[in-house]
Specification:
This protein is mainly alpha-helical. It has 9 helices and no strands. It has one domain. It is 82% helix and 0% strand. The protein is rod-shaped, with a radius of gyration of 32 Å. The termini are far apart.
Length: 247
């Protein structure tokens, strides 16, 4: 009869009842080697970190861009640097720090020749812009690290798992694919988790790079607007009749 003959042709230890039956992702994780398990857990934590950074940094960036654009409009509508400072007084945006920095430099330069005021204001604004940009990029570097290393970490888990699978073949002294297939599947799961962690990290990092570039342009526009106020104030101080006419 075909049924008993087929059962007799199976190698020792390859009977259906002795093979792992739970090949779901959780079952493969539970049946994996301790090293492969550690790789999978590490990659899962990296994926959680990626999505946490995405939520936190998205809220921070979008709020900074929205408040910065609103404040830039108010600064552009102001008629002097002091009036722009009043418009930015209640704001916590980096643009408000730009206005305060320019106003502080103008106050510190009171009584000095006006020729070097613009250079000093530009220097101070550049440093404030750089600090704001660094603050906004904080936390995004880990996304680049995860995106670059997660596939290789997953590949390490796969290589380790396949190595163990071949060791199992040697111990079982059989080439039956049913013996080695569960171990290979568990090993390949590590690569899959590595890709799941890496692909979103790379995409999110590129999105943040574009948003931060736009934020830097916004800061540059604000600095240019502030410098125009400084230039107007200098011209008014040199020509009092213009100030009287403006008032």
């Amino acid at each position: 009869m075909p049924g008993p003959l087929a059962a007799e042709t199976l190698p020792a230890g390859a009977a259906l009842g002795t093979l792992p039956q739970n090949l779901s992702p959780w079952g493969m994780f539970m049946g994996a080697d301790i090293v492969v398990k550690a790789v999978m857990v590490g990659l899962a934590l990296a994926s959680v970190i990626t999505w946490t950074v995405w939520v936190a940094k998205s809220l921070e960036l979008l709020a900074a861009i929205r408040s910065g654009r609103a404040l830039l409009g108010r600064i552009a509508a102001a008629r002097s640097l002091s009036e722009a400072a009043l418009a930015a007084r209640a704001s916590r945006s980096a643009i408000a720090r730009l206005v305060d920095g320019a106003l502080q430099e103008a106050e510190l330069s009171d009584g000095l020749p006006a020729d070097g005021l613009k250079e000093r204001v530009v220097s101070r604004l550049d440093r404030i812009e750089a600090a704001a940009a660094r603050r906004m990029t904080r936390g995004t570097g880990i996304l680049a690290t995860i995106g670059a290393t997660a596939p290789f970490v997953g590949l390490f888990g796969t290589v380790w798992g396949i190595m163990n699978a071949f060791i199992g073949i040697s111990r079982a002294q059989t080439t039956n694919l049913a013996i080695v297939a569960p171990g290979i599947a568990e090993a390949l799961l590590a690569t899959a988790i590595g890709l799941v962690a890496a692909i979103p990290a790379v995409v999110i990092y590129n999105v943040f790079a574009r948003w931060i570039a736009g934020y830097r342009l916004l800061l540059g526009d604000a600095s240019a607007e502030i410098m125009r106020h400084v230039s107007r104030d200098l011209d008014r101080s040199r020509h009092p009749q213009l100030r009287a006419a403006a008032e």
